């Protein structure tokens, strides 16, 4: 297994949950950009409900790879296929090295990496590294009609959104991998045990 050091210059996502309407445009844009077949997603929007009549609450969560400070996927990869890009701090994947063992899919607490069965290799969100190299935004960020997503150096995003958190009730314990995500959370997403809704 890889000897993983902390990601010193990670980039990540800001998600304004207050603005998100659950339209799933970001999910569709990601799927289209990555030419994913039915059944595969790199960005997934889920809807949750908490509380009961007469005071129920609903919120949405748009999640992709969190490009963690200490990514579990990188730590367990026996082939060195999953790695931290030294230039921009994002977690990347080398298809040529991947042996399809799925260690990364099992290790990630966010269940992000996806085994593409037809190819027998794992694929993942790469923060649209090629689009960014061309001066563009990640597809999900550019597509969001509510401008609820941003991407950039995580410390800059945290400074720009000081009330943001990296932990909400529907996510695993952030201390496991220290995710590079900032969430402007709805109050309902910070309490109780929400139920996932099928939309």
Short description:
This protein has 199 residues and is an alpha+beta fold. It has helices at 25-33, 72-76, 103-107, 129-133, 139-143, 154-160, and strands at 11-16, 44-50, 57-63, 82-84, 91-93, 114-116, 121-123, 149-153, 181-184, 195-197.
Could you please describe the fold and organization of this structure?
The structure is a single chain. This protein is an alpha+beta fold and 199 residues long. It contains 6 helices and 10 strands. The chain has one domain: Alpha-Beta Plaits, CATH 3.30.70.20. The chain has helices at residues 25-33, 72-76, 103-107, 129-133, 139-143, 154-160; strands spanning 11-16, 44-50, 57-63, 82-84, 91-93, 114-116, 121-123, 149-153, 181-184, 195-197. The strands form 4 sheets. Strands 8-1-9 form a 3-stranded mixed β-sheet. A 3-stranded antiparallel β-sheet has the order 3-2-10, with no helix packed on it.
Task: Count the beta strands.
Answer: 10
Helix content: 10-25%
Q: Could you please say which CATH topology applies here?
A: Alpha-Beta Plaits
- Based on secondary structure, the structural category is alpha+beta
Q: Describe the sheet with the most strands.
A: 3 strands, mixed
Strand order of the largest sheet: 8-1-9
Strand content: 15-25%
Mean pLDDT equals: 95
CATH class: Alpha Beta
How many individual helices? Answer: 6
Q: Element order, helices and strands?
A: EHEEHEEHEEHHEHEE
Distance between the termini: 39 Å
Number of domains: 1
CATH architecture: 2-Layer Sandwich
Which residues form runs of ≥5 with pLDDT under 50? none
Large-scale geometry: globular
Radius of gyration: 16 Å
């Amino acid at each position: 297994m890889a000897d993983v050091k902390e990601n010193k210059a990670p980039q990540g996502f800001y998600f304004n949950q207050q603005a998100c309407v659950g339209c799933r445009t970001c999910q569709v844009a990601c799927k289209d950009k990555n030419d994913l077949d039915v059944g595969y997603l790199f960005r997934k929007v889920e809807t949750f409900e908490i509380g009961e009549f007469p005071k129920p609450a609903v919120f949405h969560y748009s999640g992709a790879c969190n490009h963690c400070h200490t990514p579990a996927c990188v730590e367990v990869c026996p082939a060195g296929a999953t790695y931290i890009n030294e230039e921009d701090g994002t977690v990347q994947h080398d298809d040529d090295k991947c042996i399809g063992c799925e260690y990364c899919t099992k290790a990630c607490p966010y269940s992000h990496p996806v085994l593409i069965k037809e190819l027998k290799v794992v694929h993942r969100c790469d923060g649209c590294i090629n689009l960014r190299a061309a001066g563009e935004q990640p597809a999900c960020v550019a597509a969001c009609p509510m401008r609820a997503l941003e991407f950039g150096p995580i410390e800059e995003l945290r400074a720009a959104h000081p009330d943001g958190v990296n932990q909400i009730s529907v996510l695993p314990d952030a201390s496991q991998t220290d995710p590079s995500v900032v969430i402007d959370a709805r109050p309902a997403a910070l309490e109780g045990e929400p139920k996932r809704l099928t939309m």
